[in-house]
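During data preparation, we tokenized the protein backbone, and the record follows.
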Amino acid sequence: MGSAARLDGTGMAKLRINGQALEIAMDPATPLLWAIRDAANLTGTKQGCGGAGRCGACTVIVDGAAMLSCAVPIGSLEGADVTTIEGLANHPVTAALVAEEAIQCGFCIPGFACAAAALLQQNPRPSPEQVDALPNLCSCGCQPRLRRAIARAAGTMLAPAAPGPTPPPEIVPAR
């Protein structure tokens, strides 16, 4: 992560969100959450606790680590690579959340998916204690299904790639 203010004094933070290079023209003290939602127009990242950093609904991945976007100013993210829930559309975690029917109201899921994806990137075989240590809260009580989803995603990510389809047998005309 970069310095708190750009050296050229423009007040624009340059970062990548879901692989797209962006210049965010907002006050450097603006929380990343609002840059994502208001400047990048990606509304999957949620505010849950009013910016207190207690619920995890705003979790995104910054340079490979899960971060609470309500608590980090964009001025400190110069050159950072940010992944939001929209950037995880084809990630094994999102498929596992659906497969395990872990989504109830859905409010916590974007932050939970980002936290889980970052955890699996850092540790492809997390212990149940490491999964339980994620700071994300689910008021609907889906934690058991969320745990199973992370385990499923880990298994998917560790599994060897399936071989391609077997070609059909050659048909030899009768003589």
